[in-house]
Write a structure and sequence with these properties.
Fumarase C, Chain B, domain 1, 18 helices, Fumarase C, Chain A, domain 2, binds arginine, Ribonucleotide Reductase Protein R1, domain 1, two-stranded antiparallel sheet, about 5% strand, 3 domains, 4 strands, mainly alpha, two-stranded antiparallel ribbon
Length: about 475
């Protein structure tokens, strides 16, 4: 990567070249080379505009476009030599272009790397959002698949990690689907924020040259729903605004938090203590010492990586918070966290989706755990309420019955009827029949509840929406 020449782009006012250490701390091409194709796109649009307003001759435009085409092909076939002494992707491409086509000495007219990098990144964010939304959609489909194939499995739902009320395992998974749908919306809002073109802001204060900003925006696809190009409204803001970076990293951090909670559930469920599920061999690993082990590494790594996503969001906020307007070189450090959040979030989504499809549910274990009659204590309260006992009294009385069952060491549904009736005379002979999981779930038939009809409708509606 290193080959040192006189700094061709800004070297004019310097007596000596930057030191090797300056080059080392200053280079960003090792990271921002992934913006190359967006940078070329941006140069094409800029050159086309310069020719439209008469700054480039037709023949100069032609030569620049053909040079850009050659560089694009070289980059795609990995025949492009990236030079770290040229700092970043923008200068690497411009210098290589000038060697092929000397007309490109005019290309940087009325633009700066400051508006260039903002624009390149906005193009990158738009694609990144589309790709993440696609990966989330795949995970939604895997979650629906999982829910559909385990429709008849009921597990305890937990609060405080204590058994609370019975829910179909599908209801549990559909809770995550709600989170993922919100994540998709969040990334689509980030896409909207990205869809504004900063080109023409120059380094800080635009240009005296007669440029056409709308032409560039239109060429680059920064277009609103009515088909009009959208451009930034303040040159100083445009070159130093990194809100979008933070919005994207934040959407990744929230998504990561959701994936981490999902992972935590599956890690718990796959333990012998829970025994609700068996994770696929393909997404678990063994121990180098203990031969019996099968560890949930895929889900643990997703949980671990979610910390990185939160850290990246924090890094970006911290970079920005003390910077005076406008561009400061600190901002070059914005790429690592953003690219890392994207790379990790994409991988986490793909792994979660594939691992989920391989999970086997241990139905008999789930059904035996969920048969604990205590899980229906709240249903018994509801029964008393319908019989006319005020809710607070009913809650207290059922609490007393639970205490009794603990003292007698007799399961709730097996308590002697007479004793139950002595606590509340509203209890009838059908005491034992009150403990029906099926009835309990059937009655939970309003929007958002875990009744089977509800869940079926929910799955069908989501499948229609996403397949
Ligand atoms: N590589 C730089 C970055 O990513 C591009 C902008 C450079 N601008 C400057 N004034 N040195 O931030």
């Amino acid at each position: 990567m290193t080959k040192t020449k006189q700094q061709a782009t800004w070297g004019g006012r310097f007596k000596s070249k930057p030191s090797d250490l300056m080059l080392k701390i200053g280079e960003s091409v090792s990271l921002d080379c992934r913006l190359a194709l967006y940078d070329i796109e941006c140069s094409r649009a800029h050159a086309s505009m310069l020719s439209k307003v008469g700054i480039l001759k037709e023949s100069e435009l032609k030569s620049i476009l053909s040079g850009l085409g050659k560089i694009e092909a070289d980059i795609e076939s990995q025949n492009f030599e990236w030079r770290s002494d040229l700092e970043d992707v923008h200068m690497n491409i411009e210098q290589a272009l000038i060697e092929i086509s000397p007309e490109a000495l005019k290309l940087h007219t009325a633009r700066s790397r400051n508006d260039q990098v903002s624009t390149d990144m906005r193009l990158w964010f738009k694609d990144a959002c589309v790709s993440i939304i696609g990966d989330i959609e795949a995970l939604v489909l895997s979650s629906l698949e999982f829910s559909k194939s385990n429709l008849d499995v009921i597990i305890p739902g937990y609060t405080h990690l204590q058994r609370a009320q019975p829910v179909p395992i599908a209801h549990h998974l559909l809770a995550y689907v709600e989170m993922f749908v919100r994540d998709m919306n969040r990334f689509s809002i980030v896409w909207d924020s990205a869809n504004v073109c900063p080109m023409g802001s120059g380094a800080i204060a635009g240009t005296t040259l007669p440029i056409d900003r709308l032409h560039v925006a239109e060429k680059l696809g920064f277009i609103n729903e009515e088909g009009y190009p959208i451009i930034t409204q303040n040159s100083m803001d445009a070159v130093s605004d990194r809100d979008l970076f933070i919005e994207f990293a934040n959407a990744c951090a929230i998504l990561g938090m959701h994936l981490s909670r999902l992972s935590e559930d599956f890690i718990l469920w796959s333990s012998s203590e829970f025994g609700f599920v068996q994770l696929p061999d393909t997404f678990t690993t063994g121990s180098s010492l203990m031969p019996q082990k099968k560890n949930p590494d895929s889900f643990e790594l997703i949980r671990g990586k979610s910390a990185r996503l939160i850290g990246n969001n924090q890094t970006l906020l911290t970079i920005m918070k003390g910077l005076p307007l406008t561009y400061n070189r600190d901002m070059q450090e914005d790429k690592m966290p953003v690219f890392d959040s994207y790379d990790q979030a994409s991988l986490m989504l793909k792994v979660a989706s594939a691992a989920l499809l391989g999970v086997k549910v241990n139905k008999s274990r789930c059904m035996s755990v969920v048969s604990d009659p205590l899980l229906l204590a709240t249903d018994i309260v509801d029964y008393l309420v319908l019989e006319g006992t005020p809710f607070r009294d009913a809650h207290h009385k059922v609490g007393a019955i639970v205490k009794l069952s603990e003292e007698l060491n007799v399961p709730l549904d097996k308590l002697p009827l007479a004793q139950v009736q002595s606590i509340d005379s509203n209890f009838k002979d059908n005491w034992a029949e009150l403990f029906s999981l099926e009835k309990s779930l059937k009655a939970r038939n309003k929007t958002g509840m875990p009744g089977f009809n509800q869940i079926n409708e929910q799955i069908e509606a989501l499948r229609k929406r996403f397949s």
